[in-house]
Amino acid sequence: MKIIFATNNAHKLSEVQAVLGDGFTLVTPRECGITEDIPEDQDTLEGNASQKSHYLYDRTREDCFADDTGLEVEALGGAPGVHSARYATDGHDFDANNRLLLKNMEGKTNRKARFRTVISLIINGEEHQFEGIVEGRIIDHEIGHEGFGYDPMFIPDGYDRTFAQMTAEEKNAISHRGRAVKKLVAYLQSIEK
Length: 193
Ligand code: ITT
Description:
- The chain has five helices and seven strands; from the N terminus they run βαβαββαβββαα.
- By secondary structure, the protein is an alpha/beta fold.
């Protein structure tokens, strides 16, 4: 099955393709001739995921999905949350975001955090949402070079390594996005029958 996935993030694309498996071929917006940035200016992950999938659907009329992810840190009142991509700057500057998070976490004893992903799927013109969460903690320095974004500072509960120290396979097995994508696959398989 071919399905359009609204992302410009190559890491995300390969993570999602790995969880979806060979039965699904992901098509990027660029491959559909959509080269502009897809707007995501809502104030919730649900709103952004839905805005992105509707943007694609309105232009292609094809089955498509989008995800939005946020890192929600308890001691920071849930920040950076829906603002995770633009925490420090207007762009997607992972290093600047990570430095700001480390600074804002200085002296905090409550290190609890979670990644939350919301996927919005539009299939046969109808929207369905799927959520994936992984709980963990933020450490006080960066470790590891795998993954992307806040991965070098996040240790999932039950582990002693950051996401950036895990292989893509290990991260996908327990991650927010991996969990949300598994729900998406289960749904797609259930309606294929
Ligand atoms: P697209 O919108 O093009 O898909 P993006 O990088 O903006 O790419 P999101 O809006 O979903 O993706 O994610 C917001 C930010 O959250 C992202 O820029 C990263 O800093 C962070 N993030 C998302 N998923 C992550 C993950 O699996 N590990 C670490 N950080 C992540």
